[in-house]
Recover the amino acids of this structure.
């Protein structure tokens, strides 16, 4: 049983997608499985290998996007895959905050 993964980043301060953000997919022990940059729509699609059940993390380089005005230079989202469905993990950012959720 394997799952697919996608993500996107929205800049809530600007009200638009955040393009060009570097994102890494890692195992819990830090082994990098995939990497890429968000596109013009703030999305990464078809970039990650099929994932088996387990715990993973997405590492977003927000400093390169927000610069020194951003309070969080990096955002790490740790999540669990328990089944073979599609998993969508969005990130909403602003210079002084972020949030995430399991999307569809």
């Amino acid at each position: 049983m394997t799952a697919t993964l996608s993500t996107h980043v929205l800049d809530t301060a600007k009200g638009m997608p955040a393009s060009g953000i570097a994102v890494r997919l890692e195992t819990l022990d830090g082994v990098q499985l995939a990497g890429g940059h968000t596109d013009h729509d703030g999305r990464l699609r078809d970039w990650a290998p099929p994932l088996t059940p387990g715990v993973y993390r997405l590492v977003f380089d927000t400093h390169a996007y927000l610069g020194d005005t951003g309070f969080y230079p990096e955002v790490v989202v740790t999540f669990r895959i328990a089944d073979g469905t599609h998993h969508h993990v969005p990130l909403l950012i602003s210079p002084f905050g972020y949030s995430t959720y399991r999307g569809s």
